[in-house]
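Re: that backbone. Tokens:
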């Protein structure tokens, strides 16, 4: 069964809360677990339970939305909802996944949920319960291979590791993305992770393994490979950022 994306709504304006709640109720994948009138109330909910997504107003009394986000560790995915354009740059510096200007339309809200789904679910509609003790990549001390052999439907394909950009787990198969093609295989992504050298590949999400050499940009919630943004899973984040920052230094 598809798991729900657990979200909270934080806004000091009752009408704004009602609008967002009404939109959320129209999307089966969303579960609104709390509706908060201020940042302090929201902070309490975020400390008590795991929240996937926060719809967060910026201008609120006592503690504003930006200050709330800066106080959180770890941070859930955040979508700012505000009537003010001038905070957009600061919001994205804090790795918000979207910035919705009021009045917010249903179509714009749905576009945001699609983006959140990509970060949380790897695009397959299932919220992943990630296991932090799952090894991101094999720690084998054996001599690292230069080739990877992939089973496809009718043959075994030999791939040069330097050609691989990233691997994507999608439903019952894994797609290996190279600079020239996409190669599907029924081999599990966990099995393939064990075959890839940890000096060149890193698992950033239950659904994604990326080649470190192909990463062109990253922040705390995503990496960019050939212009495509791939999500960093919450329980892979600490290790992934450590490796990416070391790689970029």
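Recovered sequence:
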């Amino acid at each position: 069964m598809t798991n729900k994306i657990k979200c909270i709504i934080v806004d000091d304006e009752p009408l704004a809360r009602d609008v967002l709640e009404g939109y959320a109720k129209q999307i089966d994948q969303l579960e609104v677990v709390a509706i908060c009138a201020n940042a302090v109330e929201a902070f309490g909910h975020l400390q008590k339970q795991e929240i996937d997504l926060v719809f967060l107003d910026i201008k609120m009394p006592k503690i504003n939305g930006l200050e709330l986000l800066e106080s959180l560790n770890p941070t859930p995915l955040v979508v700012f909802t505000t009537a003010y354009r001038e905070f957009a740059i600061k919001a994205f510096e804090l790795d918000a996944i979207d910035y919705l200007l009021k009045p917010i339309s249903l179509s714009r809200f749905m576009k945001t949920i699609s983006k959140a789904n990509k970060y949380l679910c790897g695009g397959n509609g299932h919220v992943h319960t990630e296991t932090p003790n799952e090894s991101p990549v094999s720690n084998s001390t054996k001599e690292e291979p230069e080739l990877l052999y992939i089973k496809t439907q009718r043959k075994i394909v030999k791939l040069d590791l330097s050609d691989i950009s990233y691997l994507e787990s999608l439903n019952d198969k894994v797609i290996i993305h190279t600079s020239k093609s996409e190669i599907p295989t029924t081999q599990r992504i966990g099995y393939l992770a064990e075959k890839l050298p940890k000096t060149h590949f890193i698992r950033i999400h239950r659904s994604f393994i990326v080649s470190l050499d192909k990463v062109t940009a990253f922040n705390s919630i995503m990496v960019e490979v050939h212009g495509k943004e791939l999500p960093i899973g919450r329980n892979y984040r600490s290790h992934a950022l450590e490796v990416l920052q070391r790689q970029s230094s």
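Confidence is low (pLDDT under 50) at residues 129-143. The helical segments are 14-25, 39-48, 65-71, 88-93, 106-121, 189-195, 237-248.
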